[in-house]
Design a protein that fits this description.
There is one protein chain. This protein has 202 residues and is α+β, with helices and mostly antiparallel strands. The protein folds into two domains: 47 residues; 139 residues, Jelly Rolls. The strands form two sheets. It has a seven-stranded antiparallel sheet, with helices on one face. A five-stranded antiparallel sheet has the order 7-6-9-4-12, with no helix packed on it.
Length: 202
C-alpha cells in the first residue's frame, strides 16, 4: 500500500513539474514576443529617422541641363547628406554626344541602363549596350556618343563631391524655364569649375 501511495505521489509531483515547465515556456514565448513587439514599436516611435535614401527611378533632384537634356542628382551633400559620393542619372537622346572630358578630382563609374552607343575611355573606343559599366580613373579622358535609336540613360557615381556644383551651375530645376547658355557664359562656367571637369577641346 505504501509503495502504491509513493508511486502515486511521485507521479503527481512529476506531472505538476511538467505542467509548470510547460506554462513557464509558454510564458517565456509570450514575454519574448511581447518584448520584440515593444522594441519594434519604440524603434518606430522614438528612434531617429534613417539618413539614407530609398529612391525610385523618377525620384531625386530632377533638373534640366541648360542645353535641354534631363538629369537627376540622386545623392550628394544636399541629397542624403553624403560627404563623399555624387550619384545621378543623365539622358542622352539619339545622335547626341557627351564631349570627351576628364574629372581631375575623383574616380567615376558610369553604368548604362538603356540605349546603345560608343564610349571613349583614354585610347579605347568600344560599343556599349545596356548593362555596360565604365570605370573612369581620376584624370582619365571619357566621352560617349548615342549611336542607337533610343535615348541612352546612364547612372554616374563619383568617389568625391564637387561635380554636383557644376551640374547645378549648368542646369535649372525641372519645371522652370530653360534658358540656353551663351558661348561666353558656358566658357566662364567651364573655367570656374575646372577643378571638377575639363573638356579636351579646351
Amino acid at each position: 500500500m505504501k509503495r502504491i501511495l509513493i508511486i502515486a505521489l511521485l507521479t503527481l509531483v512529476a506531472a505538476s513539474l511538467a505542467l509548470g515547465h510547460t506554462e513557464n515556456e509558454q510564458a517565456g514565448h509570450h514575454s519574448t514576443a511581447e518584448r520584440q513587439e515593444r522594441a519594434a514599436r519604440q524603434w518606430q516611435e522614438g528612434s531617429p529617422q534613417s539618413t539614407g535614401l530609398i529612391l525610385q527611378a523618377d525620384e531625386g533632384e530632377r533638373m534640366v541641363r541648360r542645353w535641354g537634356l534631363p538629369m537627376t542628382i540622386k545623392v550628394d551633400p544636399r541629397n542624403g547628406g553624403s560627404q563623399h559620393l555624387v550619384v545621378g542619372t543623365e539622358d542622352l537622346p539619339p545622335g547626341k554626344v557627351i564631349p570627351v572630358h576628364k574629372h581631375p578630382h575623383a574616380d567615376e563609374v558610369v553604368l548604362l541602363l538603356q540605349g546603345t552607343g560608343v564610349a571613349t575611355l583614354g585610347a579605347q573606343r568600344r560599343a556599349v549596350t545596356p548593362g555596360a559599366l565604365l570605370f573612369i580613373p581620376q584624370g582619365e579622358w571619357v566621352g560617349m556618343e548615342n549611336t542607337g535609336q533610343e535615348t541612352i540613360r546612364v547612372v554616374f557615381i563619383f568617389s568625391a563631391r564637387g561635380f554636383d556644383t557644376y551640374l547645378r551651375a549648368t542646369s535649372v530645376p525641372e519645371g522652370q524655364q530653360v534658358t540656353p547658355l551663351s558661348p561666353r557664359e558656358l566658357a566662364e562656367i567651364r573655367q570656374k569649375f575646372q577643378p571638377y571637369i575639363t573638356f579636351k577641346e579646351e
